[in-house]
């Protein structure tokens, strides 16, 4: 899929930040001991990690000379996303914190990563076991992602498949009208699952009550009771009782069984798929996968460089 100028801009910006330092609360400012000290005071829970990655604060050296981060700008994950979008001319993400971005960002579409459009340049999020978005990064649309991974890693370029990404979101302005993708219809109804919230869930619950299913409260929260009500309605109407409200279930609820809405493009909330708490073994396996992803990305880059060098060599002969 061809990329628009805005998508190319955010891709180029993101790749230019690979290797930059991660600092909790970092907003693209120059990484200095003084800036790190201020962030450590602002985020005491991360103070030890902030200090450890600074050779001056950790007492290893008295100056920044020789530090791999000397002269570079620093970010945390949400601020990397925020300033990447800003650099590409996209407004609406001037928000701190991955979870706040996800909830309050100016999104064109968002949902579970399984529903992410193929080749989409977008923002990815990881939902933690508490149901909140704990991490975010910039998906480049080619199966890779740039994200501020953590104090010990900095900003990295990984394979999407190497991480535990659970949701995607496309900022308004990321896609142009002529990029080959259909515009989101204002009356399109999102796919809803356990964990969804908002006005669409209120509408769902009202329709369920109107169908004579009085097993729930109309509160805009898709929990276990709403899921049970959806399954009951689906069973009564010959639908697969999976508890997911997609085009067929919406059509049946509205009395239009047999017709389908357009593909759901703007799910308000994606399914609640909170990963279990990691054991030490899980963490080790995850790190091994991430390292393998980085190695694969490096191999692909090396292959491209070798091909380019061969082409130059042949041209000179």
Biggest sheet architecture: 6 strands, antiparallel
* CATH architecture annotation of the largest domain: Alpha-Beta Complex
Element order: H for helix, E for strand? HEHHEHHEEEEEEHHHH
How much helicity do the residues have? 25-40%
Fourth CATH level, the homologous superfamily of the largest domain: endopeptidase domain like (from Nostoc punctiforme)
- Strand percentage lies at 5-15%
CATH topology of the largest domain: endopeptidase fold (from Nostoc punctiforme)
Description of the molecule:
- By secondary structure, the protein is α+β, with helices and mostly antiparallel strands.
- The chain has two domains: 5-183, endopeptidase fold (from Nostoc punctiforme), CATH 3.90.1720.10; 199-253, Muramoyl-pentapeptide Carboxypeptidase, domain 1 (Orthogonal Bundle), CATH 1.10.101.10.
- The chain contains nine helices and eight strands.
- It has helices at residues 5-16, 33-42, 47-52, 77-87, 98-104, 199-210, 224-236, 247-253, 280-316; strands at residues 27-30, 73-75, 107-112, 122-127, 133-139, 144-150, 154-159, 167-171.
- The strands form two sheets. Strands 3-8-4-5-6-7 form a six-stranded antiparallel β-sheet. A two-stranded antiparallel sheet has the order 1-2.
- Helix 1 packs across helix 4.
- It is globular and about 70 Å long.
- The two termini are 35 Å apart.
């Amino acid at each position: 899929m061809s990329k628009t100028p805005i998508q190319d801009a955010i891709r180029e910006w993101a790749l230019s930040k690979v290797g930059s330092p991660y600092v909790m609360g970092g907003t693209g400012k120059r990484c200095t001991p003084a800036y790190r000290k201020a962030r450590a005071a602002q985020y005491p829970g991360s103070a030890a990690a902030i200090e450890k990655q600074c050779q001056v604060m950790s007492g290893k050296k008295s100056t920044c000379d020789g530090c791999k981060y000397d002269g570079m700008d620093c970010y945390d994950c949400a601020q990397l996303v925020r300033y990447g979008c800003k650099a590409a001319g996209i407004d609406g993400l001037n928000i701190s914190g991955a979870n706040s971005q996800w909830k309050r960002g100016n999104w064109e579409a968002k949902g579970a990563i399984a529903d992410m459009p193929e080749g989409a340049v977008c923002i990815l999020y990881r939902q933690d076991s508490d149901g909140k978005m704990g991490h975010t990064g910039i998906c480049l649309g080619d199966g890779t992602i740039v994200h501020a991974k953590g104090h010990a890693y900095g900003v990295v370029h990984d394979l999407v498949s190497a991480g535990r990404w659970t949701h995607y979101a496309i900022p308004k302005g990321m896609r142009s009208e002529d990029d080959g993708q259909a515009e989101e219809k204002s009356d399109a109804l999102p796919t809803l699952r356990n964990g969804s919230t908002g006005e669409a869930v209120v509408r769902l619950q009202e329709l369920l009550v109107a169908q004579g299913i009085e097993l729930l409260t109309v509160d805009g929260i898709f929990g276990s009771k709403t899921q049970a009500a959806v399954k009951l309605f689906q069973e009564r109407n010959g639908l697969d009782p999976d508890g997911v409200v997609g085009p067929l279930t919406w059509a049946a609820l509205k009395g239009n069984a047999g017709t389908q809405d357009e593909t759901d493009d703007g799910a308000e909330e994606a399914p609640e798929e909170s990963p279990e708490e990691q054991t030490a073994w899980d963490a080790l396996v995850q790190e091994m996968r991430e390292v393998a992803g980085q190695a694969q990305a490096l191999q692909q880059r090396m292959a491209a460089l070798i091909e380019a060098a061969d082409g130059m060599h042949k041209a000179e002969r």
